[in-house]
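Below is a filled-in request sheet from our internal design queue. Each sheet records the structural input a requester submitted and the sequence that came back. We keep these sheets so that new team members can see what a complete request looks like end to end.

REQUESTER: design group, bay 2
PRIORITY: normal
MODE: inverse folding
CHAIN LENGTH: 155
BACKBONE (tokenized):
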């Protein structure tokens, strides 16, 4: 028997908790012709966007910089969060505030600053977010549209 569907406020709270708590996610980009590329990356959520870092030569970075679009998947298939986002900005590792870079390194267990200029940070801004656990949550899975949460999270 499946648990009852969560209401919108609970789904938003659960998603925000996952963004704060989870360390890694699957990031999908595509080249300008549509050829997809999928890669696991660590991230830091700042309350508005996801901060990631990867080699500028990596297909994820190249495709994100050329198209400005990305999709992110968090969680297992029975508690999934899907994020459609856009590139907010590329931040050279030497220009990211030290406290933010330190927080990223502490959470990820990886410090891109040690890789030099070849590992910038990418700020990924969510535009559309969906969250569901079971089929009874599919009909109401949208929790953010056009960059706006559809309601407040529950306390």
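RETURNED SEQUENCE:
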């Amino acid at each position: 028997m499946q648990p009852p569907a969560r209401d919108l406020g609970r789904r938003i709270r659960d998603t925000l908790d996952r963004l704060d708590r989870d360390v890694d996610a699957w990031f999908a980009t595509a080249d300008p012709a549509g050829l997809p590329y999928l890669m696991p990356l660590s991230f830091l959520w700042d309350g508005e966007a996801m901060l990631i870092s990867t080699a500028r030569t990596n297909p994820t970075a190249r495709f994100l910089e050329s198209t400005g679009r990305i999709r992110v998947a968090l969680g297992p298939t029975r508690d999934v969060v899907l994020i459609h986002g856009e590139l907010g900005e590329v931040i050279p590792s030497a220009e990211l505030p030290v406290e933010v870079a330190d927080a990223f390194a502490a959470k990820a267990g990886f410090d891109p600053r040690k890789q030099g200029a070849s590992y910038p940070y990418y700020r990924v801004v969510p535009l559309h977010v969906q969250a569901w656990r079971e089929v009874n949550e599919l009909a109401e899975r949208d929790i953010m549209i056009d960059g706006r949460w559809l309601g407040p999270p529950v306390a």
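SHEET NOTES:
- The mean pLDDT is 96.
- The radius of gyration is 16 Å.
FILED BY: M.R.
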